[in-house]
Amino acid sequence: MGRTGLRGRGRLHCFGPNHALHPIVTRWRRNLDGSIIRKSLKKMLEVLVAQYPLSDVWALPGGSLEPGETLPLKLKWILRREFWPQFQNLLKQGTEVHKGYLDDPRNTDNAWVETVAVSVHFNSQNDVEMKRLNSFLQGCDPELCIRWQVLDKRIPLHANHKKFLHKISTLLDAYY
Question: Which residues form the Nudix hydrolase domain (predicted)?
Answer without folding.
Answer: 27-172
